[in-house]
Amino acid sequence: MSFTDLGLKPELLRAVAEKGYHAPTPIQAQAIPAVLAGRDVLAGAQTGTGKTAGFVLPILQRLVAPAGAVPRALVLVPTRELAAQVADSARTYGKFLRLRTFQVFGGVNINPQITTLRAGCDLLVATPGRLLDLAQQRAVDLGHVEILVLDEADRMLDMGFIHDIKRVLRLLPAKRQNLLFSATYSDEIRALAERLLHDPLSIQVAPRNAPIELVEQCAYRVPKEHKRHLLAHLIRENDWRQVLVFTRTKHGANRLTQQLEGAGITAAAIHGNKSQSARVRALEGFKRGEVRALVATEVAARGLDIKELPHVVNYELPNVPEDYVHRIGRTGRAGRPGEAISLVSEDENSLLRDVERLLKRAIPVVPNPAFPITETARPSGGSRSPEHAQARAPGRAAGTHAGHGRGGARSGKSVVHSQQAGSRRQRHR
Ligand code: AMP
Questions:
Q1: Is the C-beta atom of 96 inside 6 A of ligand 1?
Q2: How many Å separate Cα 203 from the centre of its chain?
Q3: Does the first or last residue of the chain, that is N or C, have fewer Cβ atoms within 10 Å of its Cβ?
Q4: DSSP letter string over 276-305?
Q5: Would you say the CB of residue 50 lies under 6 angstroms from ligand 1?
Q6: Which domains does the chain have, with CATH numbers?
Q7: Alpha carbon distance 134, 122 (integer Å)
Q8: CB of 12 closer than 6 A to ligand 1?
Q9: Which residues pair with 340 in a beta bridge?
Q10: Does the reported pTM lie above 0.85?
């Protein structure tokens, strides 16, 4: 099967060839002809399956016509990152067509968006809240939308966008083509699909658990207060150059970022409280290899376009086991094996069990390596190794001891913590 077989126009085939794609992915092979034929589609597909091109390419083809003033295709997405990513894809695939794509999302000044929208756009990618604001200000007319896409619909519902989505639907013409993409199917998604889609083609390319077959998973059992030391050790000892670390809270992401930086590991946080420019900076730094650890919360990490990510760390297990699958689904793309490591503290046992129940398999718990726990005993002045810049660990690190690191470079208090088969052993450096 080639892209030519799917009935795409030469301009689109050229753009696809320039991207270096040789063959359509399974979702593309099924979705592209259906969307071109004007059918509604319900697709179960995760990030990494090529779903974006699966709807963007045929939409661009259906829109082919001189650029218009008002959007004829609307893609609703949960996050600003995904909005930027989908719009970028549309611009890339549509580079040989005369169509305008624009993205709008909240958290940034609305006025430049109003100005750009006035100049006209054919394909609009939007987060629901900002789109409603723009519609209310009459900056956008949704009365000519012919194709609607709900991308990552499950995530939009998780984020509480259902009412916004319903309000957007009321602004659209009744007769239109609808595409719904979702990684998971809850009753809520099914209800939305039923309400939205007419005689849809159902496509399920990635059964929810499929991508994780490619991911090597393991867990370390480690007390909460030692997680950061173990993480720093794993990054250093294994020489991980690019690791995505998940924390449960924004505050936790900030704190861990500072702690890793303090341990001499370049890190950046990405979460909902960060400005758009800070997020873009963090992501770009990570992609370029300048930032070794990207510390993210669940929601912010959604829609990040990071290819072939070798390591994902669950610094804290997610409350919802499905999120574990989303998180680790980011590794092992394009057939490469990835590695997902979970740091599990005592109070997370039940969360680990939930994940294992969902996966229908056990996640192997591996013995902890011996790792240093370095306390700050920072005297004023003097040159310190980066590790000693880190904050004092909460509580007393087990057996804190004066010690010297490799080559005597470390002069603060450190211990080596090792925990095997459930018993805690300490060795002093
Ligand atoms: P998505 O699932 O849309 O987030 O896409 C995941 C990644 O796959 C993106 O980086 C795309 O550039 C890439 N991709 C999409 N379609 C293809 C294809 N047919 N061949 C190779 N890579 C692709």
A1: no
A2: 22
A3: N
A4: HHHHHHHHHHHHHTS-SEEEEEHHHHTT--
A5: yes
A6: 3-204 (3.40.50.300), 215-428 (3.40.50.300)
A7: 16
A8: no
A9: 217, 312
A10: no
Structure tokens at 242: 């690019």
Asked if 270 and 246 count as a contact pair (C-beta separation under 8 A), the reply is no
At 334, list the tokens.
């394009």
User: What token pair was written down for 197?
Assistant: 């889609």
* Cβ-Cβ contacts under 8 Å for 123 (sequence gap 6 or more): 59, 60, 63, 71, 72, 73, 74, 75, 87, 90, 94, 99, 100, 101, 102
Q: Strand order in 147-150's β-sheet?
A: 101-104, 123-126, 73-76, 147-150, 177-182, 41-44, 201-204
Mutate to test the pocket of ligand 1, among 1, 3, 16, 19 (most ligand atoms within 8 A of CB): 19
276's tokens: 């758009």
How many whole angstroms separate alpha carbon 120 and alpha carbon 72? 11
Atom 23 of ligand 1, residue of closest alpha carbon: 50
Tell me the best of 18, 32, 49, 52 to mutate to test the pocket of ligand 1, counting ligand atoms within 8 Å of each CB and taking the most: 52
49: CA distance to ligand 1 center in Å?
6
Please work out whether the CB of residue 330 comes within 6 Å of at least one atom of ligand 1: no
* 330-368: pLDDT as tens digits: 676 555 668 899 999 999 999 999 999 888 789 999 998
Task: Say how many Å lie between the CA of residue 97 and the centre of ligand 1.
Answer: 20
Among residues 30, 32, 27, the alpha carbon closest in space to that of 13 is found at 32
Tell me the per-residue pLDDT of 272-303, one tens digit each, with 9 for 90 and over. Answer: 777 777 887 888 888 888 999 999 987 677 65
24: nearest Cα among 205, 215, 238: 205
Could you please report the per-residue DSSP string of 10-74? HHHHHHHHHHT--S--HHHHHHHHHHHTT--EEEE--TTSSHHHHHHHHHHHHH-SS--SS-SEE
Task: Tell whether ligand 1 has an atom less than 6 A from the beta carbon of residue 49.
Answer: yes
Give the number of other CB atoms < 10 A from CB of residue 241: 11
Q: How far apart are CA 148 and CA 143, in angstroms?
A: 12
